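Dock 2-acetamido-2-deoxy-beta-D-glucopyranose; give full complex structure.
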Amino acid sequence: CEVRPGPEFLTRSYTFHPNRLFHAYQFYYEDPSCQKPAHSVLMKGKVRLRRASWVTRGATEADYHLHKVGIVFHSRGALLAVAERLGLSQASQDCARRLPPAGAWLPGAVYELLGAQAEQDCAAALGFTMHELSLVRVQRHLQPQPRAPSRLVEELYLGDIHTDSGGETALPTHGYSATAERLQHHSHPCLVCGLVSHADEHHPPVLPPPVALALRLQGRWVSSGCEARPAVLFLTRLFTFHGHNRSWEGHYHHFSDPACQQPTFTVYATGRYTNGTPSAKVRGGTELVFEVTRAHVTPMDQVITAMLNFSKPGSCGGPGAWSMGTERDVTATNGCMPLGIRLPHVEYELFKMEQDPRGQSLLFIGQRPTDGSSPDTPEKRPTSFQAPLVLCEKRAPRALGLMPTLSAHVQGLAAGASLWRKAVLPAFGKFLVLGGWGTLQ
Ligand SMILES: *[C@@H]1O[C@H](CO)[C@@H](O)[C@H](O)[C@H]1NC(C)=O
Ligand SMILES: *[C@@H]1O[C@H](CO)[C@@H](O)[C@H](O)[C@H]1NC(C)=O
């Protein structure tokens, strides 16, 4: 069950055909567990891969065109909620006439928002677009399995969904938002994948109740893969929370490539956090306040080392030269301006914990604002989540690192547009979008 800014709750299933046509379902829900379907949107269109992105390495820019968008309401209440959203502007008032009056609503009827008979694009007026298809990437990796051989997982990453909600208008997108696993490659049965994949606009998937866990941060949490952020950053994260004195430590390992193999710099930050209070806006979420009071920086490549060496004196650490691979404390200079680290710093956070079907504890941390800023006021507190971190086992904390990737393949994808396209096109098939992908930090 994905949570988008707003918050909106949805599941998605996209099918790509070899002739570039695609059809997509977006199932919307009233609740954060995706158990009460509100309305379903079906879209048909065409997508064309254009060229390797200059901004986000490893990604391909794409054009898409929607031929048809329809909406089905699963309750009268859902119709009223959508109609209310339309009552706001003149253009959308015209669109409101496409929807039936609440009294005339027919369960199962498909109302066309865009298509042969619709002279106006009412899908966009309602915020149903496919801007996420402007940026695509497919990646394969081996996922370790408890007590079984690793399995090959293929994931689809799509463009970022902007956190300022109200319409996904800003283009082009520079980050990835979503991770989808290709159903065909699930040797291991995935209950939710099956439900979403077999659903249609008349039979929206109803997900099983999540195994919600009370927020217990104690322990070490790591990224389960290479994460992407909008400002063209790739990183892995490792957090340690000390419950008894309410302090935390974070290691942010930054990389220049989407496989997280070429390190650029590492930030180690520590501070304190408050007691959590249940979120009124996002059910199941907990609001906390984090304080960052100390930070250390380690440059990991020549470019960053030189940049720090030549930065304004006093802007990042005390006097003295930087050298590659050597950590320095930047607390006394209130952070490190060249890297955008300011101290002391406060963040208004949203967390939640869940357990995945394999019994692994997952920690969801709030999505970062798309403009690259941080949630430093209560108003900017996130309403959606990044890709979850996983809890390290108590006895054998694994070193922070990625799951083994098929490096040759992944590097091939990142290496050039032609190779990348060859890799992507035959890979088209049916994708299920399983979770959010962070725009992090
Ligand atoms: C909190 O406890 C941990 C582990 O016991 C320790 O490493 C850390 O320095 C403590 N932090 C503060 C702020 O006291
Ligand atoms: C950083 O400065 C030191 C001292 O001036 C110098 O020896 C070193 O080569 C510089 N490193 C880089 C990467 O510029």
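Observed: Residues 156 and 187 are 17 Å apart (CA to CA).
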